[in-house]
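Narrative of accomplishments. A recurring question from our advisory board has been how the design workflow behaves on a single, concrete structure rather than in aggregate. To address it, we present the structure tokens for one chain from the evaluation set, followed by the sequence designed for it. No filtering or post-editing was applied between the two.
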């Protein structure tokens, strides 16, 4: 975009831009339902809940490490089925998972990540983040590995 066509707004006439990534996580009961219905998606979502939350934490940590903000939404089977039906998809692919949800129809509030260590965990367990998903995901991340790894 041309600088001449761009007009800053705000009290100090400056902008602060950041890229925000949407991360969908599947609460444990929903994860079980999705994998039972479409086992081929386990290659992307993780076969078990622990694999899924490790992958989810790792993905978010790498995105945050790259300097981007992360907002998250819980996935649910019934919402995913509606999403797929709207697209006339009967056997979802990884691309369908990545396109879900249709943000034009989302009514659930997005939650920023990472939560404070003593805040409730993002997974919905009711436990504190520091005692729940944080040690399972971030404890396995090698902070010196390349972002593409």
């Amino acid at each position: 975009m041309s600088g001449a066509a761009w007009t800053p707004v705000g009290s100090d006439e400056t902008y602060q831009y950041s890229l925000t990534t949407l991360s969908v996580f599947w609460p444990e009961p929903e994860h079980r339902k999705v994998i039972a219905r479409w086992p081929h998606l386990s290659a992307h979502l993780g076969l078990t809940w622990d694999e899924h939350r490790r992958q989810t934490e790792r993905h978010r940590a790498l995105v945050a490490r790259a300097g981007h903000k992360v907002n998250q939404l819980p996935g649910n089977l019934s919402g995913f089925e509606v999403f797929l039906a709207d697209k006339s998809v009967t056997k979802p692919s990884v691309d369908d998972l990545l396109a879900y949800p249709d943000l034009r129809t989302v009514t659930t509030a997005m939650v920023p990540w990472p939560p404070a260590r003593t805040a409730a965990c993002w997974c919905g367990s009711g436990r504190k983040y520091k005692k729940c998903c944080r040690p399972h995901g971030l404890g396995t991340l090698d902070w010196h590995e390349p972002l593409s790894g």
